[in-house]
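hey so i finally got around to running the thing on that chain from the lab meeting. sorry it took forever, my laptop kept dying and i had to restart like 3 times. anyway pasting the input first so we r on the same page abt which one it is
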Amino acid sequence: MKIAFIAHDKKKDEMVTFTMAYKHLFEGHELYATGTTGQRIMDATGLTITRFRSGPLGGDQQIGALVAENEFDLIIFLRDPLTAQPHEPDIAALIRLCDVQNIPLATNMGTAEILVRGLARGDLNWRNIV
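ok and heres what got predicted. didnt touch it at all, straight out
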């Protein structure tokens, strides 16, 4: 599966902790992330991640372009709802595209945990459901 990771600045530590906890699950998948988030995950876990630009510099839009092409299977985007984001329109567009393409999207730790547990059980093979 192709999995993307995005985290706002105040959520990057949570994302690193999360990916360390589930490193064994993520190892067998194609991983992508926005710039700083991806670097922090790689430094902490040793996972191989294809990195895009930082979110405010267009990384959200780069991931969004691939979402529009239905290229991702799962996105974990730990958002900080209490801090204004200068690229909020890009974030809203990414979330809308995930809804359009029916791509599972976690925007908080609770949903991320549920999706990863589904991934571990093999429940997220939604593209092959007939």
